[in-house]
């Protein structure tokens, strides 16, 4: 069975659903293919910085998400070796951080909010892409059930193992040499954490806790990987024991939060990134195909911008395609193809250096924060701590703009 679709988006994650919703707001239909049988919520929560809220407002879902997640009014970092604070920053204080909006959003809530705004037929689940071929100006998307879709535009939002990125010539993302254990905790009677992210560095590990709302918190723990990962991967009890044994001098309430975490609320994953030079040299778009989100710019989580950048991608990609497909009535297929190609090139041009900067910054920050050398530790805690905090805010100042070009 073959069907023709104007725009096929592979992957119903943050980038895929944001792109689909952005196009929907512009009156353009798309089809989203998701390989799993439902929305994938792996990762529990994500930090949404100012740039993310600009994107969420652009697509019209900022307000309902704000009502469900507490605003964070500062950030604090401390050394796990001494237990002493290295930097504390308030977002309502004078300076470059003024006007920032930061919240920790539950991934499931974000994805469900995006999906619920789309027409019910937009997302097709249990639809795994197994092959991509060309047929004149169309892309033939072969699915695991034997069906074939003919796409005028093909957008890969299918994560770090993206089939579309592979088709464009990108290599598999590189392993950063570190892994992350993440968890979430629900407090029936409410928790006692202040409304700000707490992060702790030292002895080769990086950990933190971020409140989502009055009753839920999200925590993370990143560490240099070893053969121990395989033993822990299927055992939440071993993950908990490993994390608790490596936390160092942290507050009792954070330690208690990890101890309280239910077995089903642990996840371990390797940290991967695309080398920044591949972003500069690779094909972000080619003809009528492009990538967005983790398929485009997988990065380490050290500045909390992976999900935020995926939201930016979705707005900018929808805008570029909207401009390309505007007033297409009476347009020949050849002209439509050329306009699509130019629209995707505009998207790639706008996103290339931003992605390069984000990946490079995240890797550098993670390397410094998770170092275990005496000299670098001294510089991090005494000299670089404030600089790194400002750098995160600088990355969050980006504005993806509106869906319609002014």
Walk me through the structure.
Residues 93-97 have low confidence and may be disordered. The strands form three sheets. Strands 1, 2, 7, 8, 9, 10, 16 and 17 form an eight-stranded mixed β-sheet that branches. The protein is of the alpha/beta class. It is globular and about 70 Å long. The protein contains twelve helices and 17 strands.
In what range is the share of β-strand residues? 25-35%
- How much helix is in the residues? 25-40%
* Shape summary: globular
Label the structural class: alpha/beta
* E-strand count: 17
Gyration radius (Cα, Å) is 21 Å
Note the gap between the termini: 42 Å
Number of helices: 12
The biggest beta sheet reads: 8 strands, mixed
- SSE string: EHEEHHEEEHEEEEHEEEEHHHEHEEHHH
Mean pLDDT rating: 90
Flag low-confidence runs: 93-97
What tags apply to this protein structure?
globular; single chain; about 400 residues; eight-stranded mixed β-sheet; alpha/beta
Quick summary:
The protein has helices at 14-25, 50-58, 62-68, 107-116, 163-168, 228-232, 236-246, 252-260, 276-281, 306-325, 333-369, 374-395; strands at 2-10, 31-33, 45-48, 74-79, 85-90, 103-106, 123-124, 129-135, 138-143, 148-156, 174-186, 198-202, 205-211, 216-224, 266-273, 285-286, 289-291. The chain has 406 residues and is α/β, with parallel strands linked by helices. Strands 1, 2, 7, 8, 9, 10, 16 and 17 form an eight-stranded mixed sheet that branches. A seven-stranded mixed sheet has the order 5-4-12-13-14-11-15, sandwiched between helices.
Question: How does the SSE layout of this entry go?
Answer:
Elements: E1 2-10, H1 14-25, E2 31-33, E3 45-48, H2 50-58, H3 62-68, E4 74-79, E5 85-90, E6 103-106, H4 107-116, E7 123-124, E8 129-135, E9 138-143, E10 148-156, H5 163-168, E11 174-186, E12 198-202, E13 205-211, E14 216-224, H6 228-232, H7 236-246, H8 252-260, E15 266-273, H9 276-281, E16 285-286, E17 289-291, H10 306-325, H11 333-369, H12 374-395
Parallel strand pairs: 1-2, 1-10, 2-7, 4-12, 10-17
Antiparallel strand pairs: 3-6, 4-5, 8-9, 9-10, 11-14, 11-15, 12-13, 13-14, 16-17
Helix pairs in contact: 1-4, 1-10, 2-10, 10-11, 11-12
């Amino acid at each position: 069975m073959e069907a023709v679709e104007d725009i096929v988006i592979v992957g119903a994650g943050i980038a895929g659903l944001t792109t689909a919703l952005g196009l929907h707001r512009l009156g353009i239909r798309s089809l989203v293919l998701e390989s799993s049988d439902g929305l994938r919520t792996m990762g529990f929560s994500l930090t949404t910085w100012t740039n993310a809220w600009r994107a969420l407002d652009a697509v019209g879902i900022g307000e309902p998400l704000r009502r469900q997640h507490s605003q964070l009014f500062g950030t604090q970092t401390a050394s796990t070796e001494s237990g002493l604070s290295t930097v504390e920053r308030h977002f309502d204080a004078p300076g470059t951080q003024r006007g920032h909006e930061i919240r920790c959003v539950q991934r499931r809530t974000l994805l469900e909010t995006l999906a619920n705004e789309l027409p019910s037929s937009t997302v097709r689940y249990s639809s795994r892409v197994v092959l991509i071929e060309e047929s004149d100006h169309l892309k033939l998307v072969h699915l695991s059930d034997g069906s074939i879709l003919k796409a005028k535009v093909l957008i890969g939002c299918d994560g770090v193992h993206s089939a579309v990125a592979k088709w464009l010539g990108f290599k598999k993302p590189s392993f950063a040499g570190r892994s992350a254990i993440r968890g979430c905790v629900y407090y029936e009677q409410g928790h006692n954490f202040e409304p700000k992210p707490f992060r702790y560095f030292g002895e080769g590990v990086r950990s933190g806790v971020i409140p989502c709302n009055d009753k839920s918190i999200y925590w993370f723990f990143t560490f240099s990987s070893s053969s121990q990962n395989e033993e822990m991967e299927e055992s939440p009890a071993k993950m908990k024991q490993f994390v608790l044994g490596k936390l160092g001098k942290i507050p009792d309430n954070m330690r208690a939060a990890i101890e309280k975490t239910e077995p089903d609320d642990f996840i371990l994953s390797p940290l991967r990134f695309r080398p920044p030079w591949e972003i500069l040299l690779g094909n972000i778009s080619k003809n009528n195909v492009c990538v967005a989100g983790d398929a485009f710019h997988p990065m380490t989580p050290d500045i909390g911008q992976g999900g935020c950048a995926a939201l930016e991608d979705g707005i900018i990609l929808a805008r570029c395609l909207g401009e390309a497909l505007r007033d297409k009535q009476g347009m020949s297929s050849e002209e439509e193809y050329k306009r699509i190609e130019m629209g995707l090139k505009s998207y790639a041009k706008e996103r290339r250096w931003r992605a390069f900067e984000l990946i490079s910054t995240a890797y550098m920050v993670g390397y410094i924060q998770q170092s275990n050398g005496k000299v670098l530790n001294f510089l991090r805690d005494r000299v670089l701590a404030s600089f790194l905090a400002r750098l995160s805010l600088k990355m969050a100042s980006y504005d993806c703009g509106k869906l319609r070009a002014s």
